[in-house]
Design brief:
Strand 2 and strand 3 form a beta hairpin. The protein is globular, with a radius of gyration of 13 Å. The protein is built from three helices and four strands; from the N terminus they run βαββααβ. Helices cover 33% and strands 33% of the residues.
Amino acid sequence: MDEKYYIVAKFDLPEQHKAEMLAAVKTLAEETRKEPGCDYYLFTQDQTNPQTYSFLECWKDEAAFLSHCQTPHFKVFGEFAQGKRENVVLHKLKQII
């Protein structure tokens, strides 16, 4: 059986890019949630550091995540977000308990 594949992508969003990035994330999230391998796809704001945002993702398996990375909506968002995010950190996780 394939293991679930978890992603946490965290970044800081400067105020001058906030409105346009949130609009782009809304489109990305709507399209991503339609993908067959997506169990959940959340976009969150840190309550201690409100300029810090995270994608919290769960995929059926690694293949589903890799397929997501090839979708037009993912690529469009990636190009759009270039230079608008700071301190980007990507964590690939697996559940142990």
